[in-house]
Amino acid sequence: MSNTDEEIKTLADILAENGIESEETWRLILWNDSVNSFEHVIVCLVIVLKFTPQQAEQSAWTVHLQGKDVIKSGSKESLEPYKKLLEEMELTLTIEQ
Questions:
Q1: Would 1 be classed as within a structural domain?
Q2: Sign of the torsion angle spanned by Cα atoms 64, 56, 31, 69
Q3: Domain tally, the chain
Q4: How buried is residue 58: exposed, middle or buried, by Cβ count under 10 Å (0-12/13-18/19+)?
Q5: What distance in Å separates the CA atoms of residue 31 and residue 18, rounded to the nearest whole number?
Q6: DSSP code for 29
C-alpha cells in the first residue's frame, strides 16, 4: 500500500528530473489576483479551455486557496494562444517549465 503523503508526479515531472525534454513540460499557470471574481474566472475557463463548470470551479478554488493552478500542459507554442486569450479576459497567467 502506498503512503498517501507521497507526492504524485506526472510523466513530464519525471522526464524533466532526468533531463529529458518533453513537449508536455510547459505549464499554463493561472495566478490569484484581487480583481477577478470566481464567476468571471469560471466563465473564462469554460469558454477558452472548454472546462466543465465543475472543473472551472475547482480550478478557481485551487487558485483562491493555493495562489495558483496549472490549468493546461503542453508545448510552449501550444499554450501561447490560450494565454493570450485569457489575458485579454483580464486573467493573470504565466507559462513555465
A1: no
A2: positive
A3: 1
A4: middle
A5: 28
A6: E
Q: What is the pTM of this model?
A: 0.75
Contact 42, 60 (CB under 8 A): yes
Nearest alpha carbon to residue 51 among 75, 72, 28, 79: 72
Which ranges of the chain would DSSP assign to H, the alpha helix? 11-17, 38-49, 53-66, 76-88
18 assigned to some structural domain? no
pLDDT-flagged residues of the chain (< 70): 1-6, 10-13, 15-16, 19-24
State the cell numbers at 76: 510552449
What is the residue range of 76's domain? 24-96
Give 8-17 pLDDT, tens digit per residue: 776 666 766 7
